[in-house]
Design brief:
The chain contains eight helices and no strands. It folds into two domains: about 80 residues, Rna Polymerase Sigma Factor, Chain: A (Orthogonal Bundle); about 120 residues, Orthogonal Bundle (Arc Repressor Mutant, subunit A). The radius of gyration is 18 Å and the shape is globular. By secondary structure, it is an all-alpha fold. Belongs to the sigma-70 factor family. ECF subfamily.
């Protein structure tokens, strides 16, 4: 990949990176800082991208550390607004323009499950999983990402959010239930069978 093409692809992914950061940080300025630092880091060392994974996956890996830096820099300011449930927590955040329309249907049908088969299936599944995570209501989504994406431990999540451990476990449990429902709706057939023509992926367990 040439340097101009690398720059173009990084910039094209910037809106998606910003959405990830905003969903976690709930502050436009901090999210912008995290994404800007991610882009700068990527452009300073383009040779570090070996092409073994999708460029977006590589950039999100960098962004993860920048988001953690922002959370630790600003402390409990990050999620203080979430101590009171918002309308978003009740109804869910529809950050799903990547794959679904306003009615929850595919914008485009999934690609055919032909060759290379398993690899394509995994990529499609991960794309749906990513969108389902983005659909989680605000507080549930953020604590889930702090645990599963940022890999923070219970003590640090509680310290940063101001919730106690019991409430955190409730939020995580509800988040996982919502994820399972979303995957059943958008990946598996209602009866629990795979989408017609699809092989059951290894990540099917709910």
């Amino acid at each position: 990949m040439t340097e101009p093409e690398f720059l173009r692809q990084v910039q094209a992914l910037r809106p998606q990176l910003l959405r990830f950061a905003q969903h976690q940080l709930r502050n436009a300025a901090w999210a912008e800082d995290a994404v800007s630092e991610t882009v700068v880091a990527a452009l300073e060392r383009p040779q570090a991208y070996a092409g073994a994974s999708a460029l977006k996956t590589w950039l999100v890996g960098i962004l993860k550390h920048k988001v953690v830096d922002q959370i630790r820099r600003h402390g409990r300011e990050v999620l203080v607004a979430d101590l009171t449930p918002s309308a978003e927590d009740e109804g869910g955040a529809d950050l799903d323009d990547l794959l679904f329309d306003a009615r929850g249907h595919w914008r485009e049908p999934p690609a055919d499950w032909g060759a290379p088969g398993a690899l394509l299936a995994q990529k499609q599944f991960m794309a749906v999983l990513e969108t389902c995570v983005e659909r989680l209501p605000g507080q549930q989504g953020r604590v889930f990402l702090m645990r599963e994406w940022l890999e923070l431990d219970t003590a640090e999540i509680c310290e940063q959010t101001g919730v106690n451990a019991a409430h955190l476990f409730v939020l995580l449990h509800r988040a996982r239930l919502r994820l399972r429902e979303c995957l059943q709706l958008h990946w598996f057939a209602p009866a629990g069978l795979p989408v017609p023509g699809a092989a059951t992926p290894g990540l099917a367990r709910g």
